[in-house]
Amino acid sequence: MEKLITAILMAILSMPQSFAQSVPFIPQATMEAAREAGAEIITQAPTSEVVRVGIGTSNFASYQYNDLTVFGTGDTQIYDNGQLIGNYAANQNIRITLQNGMFNVYTPQSNLPEKVSGPIQITSNYGLLGVSGLKRAGKQALYHGAFELVKNSSNTFNLVNMVEVEEYLKGVVPNEMPVAFGLEALKAQSVAARNYVLSPRTKSSPNYDVVDSVASQVYFGANTEKPLGNQAVAETEGIVALYGWDLILAQYSSTAGGYTESYSNAFSDPISKEFPSKDKPYLQAKADIIGQEPLNTEEAASDFYKSKPDAYDMRSPYFRWEREWTAEELRKALQATLPAQSATGFIKPVFQKGETLGNIKEIKVLRRGASGKIIEMEIVTNSKTYKVCKELVIRRLITKDGKALPSANVVFENNFDENGNLVSIKAFGGGFGHGVGMSQFGAGFMGSELHKTYDKILQHYYTGVALGTKPEILSAQRPSLTQSFYANKEQAKVIVDNKYGIDNLKIDINGHEKLFALPKELFAHKRYCEIDISEYVKNGRNIVQFSLPELEDNKGIRLYVELVGKDDSEYIW
Q1: What pLDDT sits at residue 22?
Q2: Most buried one in 46, 301, 446, 511, CB count within 10 A?
Q3: Are 533 and 493 in contact (CB under 8 A)?
Q4: Pairwise CA distance, residues 18 & 460, whole Å
Q5: Given this model, what pLDDT does residue 3 score?
Q6: What is the CA radius of gyration of the chain?
């Protein structure tokens, strides 16, 4: 038995280096036992951060379970709160249920379940993990990393995939963007998706960071990876889009319709619900056509969306679209959607369930954004006038055959009879989705047709951004850190915020170690400095380690590696 336990421990510790340290539940006692057995202890940090992804049921209807069956494609280990309770051969089904606050672990080798309090962790040595019957994109879902089963207060548990960010992105990119869009567009998508998962956020659950559906980003796991998608992730490794020292909120949608919209005109404040929300300087309305005037008047919006001008996303099937209703069809549609959309707080007066909507007299647009997106509109009936705000509410409110409008970039034509009664309404629109930030169809066109590199694609859609590694803090509590990044240009510089006047910074870039003196005067022009490391950067994957020779309490520096500087150019057609 002792030899078996030692073999298991050594197998766990011989997992790929990046993952071995990213598994936070290997207990110290296990490490010590492995050391005594002669195993080499891996101390290298993971190549990327670990993200906790909530895995939903096959139709994403729920993220709560009380009974599931897991398996690993390699030798599989089960832990109870970090303590190893079993090691099983590949492709064996292990059923886990939750009853009366206790997990029951059923294995092929036992007639009675192992009862444990959890949380339960599951790894597969040199293999992937799956849940029996769980499918993604029509295939058995398989996952890198580890599983953790964490109890909720409702006698159910969450299934959490703990996976390194770079591995996570491989299961996101080809499911958020067709690989047919080409490598450069996929690279732009990789950076946007990396920004999304690494940005601070209000969690929907204390048990995980993001979910695997469109509520966060579509993450279908290892069985849906594509070679070109993996290449895009690898060739943007470690790179994020930055505005100043902050990771941007890298919004993206399928199709902007030729003119993206400012963040404030499409989204409400997530906390206060204020709409329009506060501006984000890097998410500004921008036309694809040089010289295109803003579409914030009815005439300009009508001319634009009733025509098909040249634009980056003109190949999208939703670049232009039309919808039409009789007055009675629209009344019935609104009667069905008004109660739920009134609950959002963006329709006044509130339309209660059970109320009867009067006859529609007119759809009237009150305010538009620069892209022509409706910010505020009225639904005028013979009894009341309802004011409606916010693009998502508008899209979900005005449906055709039960389907929401593709976007709020829409112009309405009210058609009346000779007595002034509304007969029908026709909608002319463009785009699919919120239209803020990157247009995925636009990125595909820019990369494949215009031969723009991913950085130029990103800098078109996100105003004034730089590309580099995630900003980090070095201090006495964290005197060193390692970052990896992919460079396709042999130039890079370290941007340093030396607020506390630290004298020296040691940088090891691809094995070339050098000590750099830092400005220490606390003047505005001295606080920030740039260190050129271009001569040490290679075309491909780079490893950089930062360390502080001087360790002083309450002092530190911020830094990141900048690969592409801020670009203020407005158009790149």
Answers
A1: 35
A2: 446
A3: yes
A4: 34
A5: 36
A6: 27
- Buried b or exposed e, range 464-494, using 16+ CB within 10 angstroms: ebbbbbbbeebbeeeeeeebbbbbeeeebbb
Q: What is the pLDDT of residues 46-77, one digit of tens each?
A: 457 899 999 999 889 899 999 999 999 999 99
Q: In order of start, what are the domains of the chain with their CATH numbers?
A: 1-46 (no CATH), 251-259+282-434 (no CATH), 469-564 (2.60.120.260)
Four-point Cα dihedral 367, 371, 372, 377, nearest 10: -40
Where is pLDDT greater, at 283 or 86?
283
Q: What is the pLDDT of residue 42?
A: 30
Asked whether the beta carbons of 23 and 148 are under 8 A apart, the reply is no
239, burial (CB in 10 Å: exposed 0-12, middle 13-18, buried 19+) = buried
- Confidence bin at 112 (pLDDT 50/70/90): confident
> What global pTM score does this model have?
0.88
Both tokens of 162, joined, read: 């703990």
- Please spell the DSSP secondary structure of 450-499, one letter per residue: S---HHHHHHHHSTT-EEEPPPEEEESSS-EEEEEEEESSS--EEEEE-T
Dist. CA 567–CA 390, nearest whole Å? 31
H or E stretch at 394: helix 391-397
Bridge partners of 238, per DSSP, are none
* Amino acid (one-letter) located at 488: N
Closest CA relative to residue 492, chosen from 545, 561, 560, 558: 561
